[in-house]
Amino acid sequence: MSKARCLKNPQTGTINASFEPRAIGVQSFPFGTDQIIVFAVNTYERFSNAALGEYDISIDVNGDGKPDFMLFSADIGLIETGFNNGQIGSFLLNLVTGALFFESPADAPTDGSIVLMPVFASDMGISPANPRISYSVTAFDGSGSAGEAVPGTGCDRLHGRYGRQPVGRVGGGTAAARGLTNDAAPESRD
Ligand SMILES: [Ca+2]
Ligand SMILES: [Ca+2]
C-alpha cells in the first residue's frame, strides 16, 4: 500500500462547502496482479448526495506535465442512461483516445464528507516500471457553476507488487473483461 499524501485546498467558498474539497489524497492497494488506486476527496461540509457534484482528477502518468487521463465522479445513471439515479460512480476518460470506462461505484455515504474514487492501475498504464503519477483536481457542486480548480499538483509514487506487467492494456480490454460498459460517449457527462 502506498503512503497517502494530500493535496490541500484552502476554503474559499468558490463552490458550495458541501462539495468544496478540503484535501485530496491517493492510496493504492494490491488487487490480484493489479492495483487499485483510490483517490479520496474530503469536503469541508457534509453533502446529502455526492452524486450531485463532480470531481475531475486530471492525471499525468508519463511525466510530461500533460494529463493523460481524467478520473471523474458522476451520477452513474446520468452517464449511462442520461437520467440521474443518485448513485455515484468513478469513470476514467482516456484523454488521448477519448475512450470512457466505468471503473467502479464510488464510495460516498450520504450525509458524509468523503468521496472515494477507485481506478485500476492497469487501466492507466501504471506499473512497477511506470509507478509515478501527478494529478490536479477540479470540483463542481452541481449548481452549474464553473467549479473550482484546486491549486497545486499532487504527486505520488505508487508502490506495489505485480505478478505481471499490464503494459499495452491502457484503457483497453481490462474494463471490458470485467463486464463493464465502455460505450458511453465522453460528451454524455455534460
Ligand atoms: Ca477553495
Ligand atoms: Ca502525460
How many helix segments? 2
Number of domains: 1
List SSEs in N-to-C order: EEEEEHEEEEEEH
Q: Tell me about the biggest sheet? A: 7 strands, antiparallel
The molecules bound to the chains, other than polymers, are: calcium ion
Summarize the structure.
The chain has 190 residues and is mostly beta strands. It has one domain (5-179). Helix content is 5%, strand content 39%.
Characterize the structure shown.
The chain is mainly beta and 190 residues long. It has one domain. 5% of the residues lie in helices and 39% in strands. It has 2 helices and 11 strands, in the order E-E-E-E-E-H-E-E-E-E-E-E-H. The strands form 2 sheets. Strands 4, 5, 6, 7, 9, 10 and 11 form a 7-stranded antiparallel beta sheet that branches. It is globular and about 40 Å long. One calcium ion binds at residues 9-12, 14, 20, 148.
Key features of this structure:
binds calcium ion; single chain; globular; 190 residues; 5% helix; 2 helices; disordered C terminus; 39% strand; mainly beta; seven-stranded antiparallel beta sheet; four-stranded antiparallel beta sheet
What is the strand and helix layout of this fold?
Layout: E1 5-8, E2 21-31, E3 34-43, E4 54-60, E5 69-75, H1 76-80, E6 88-94, E7 100-105, E8 114-120, E9 132-140, E10 148-149, E11 154-157, H2 173-177
The protein binds calcium ion (CA) (2 copies).
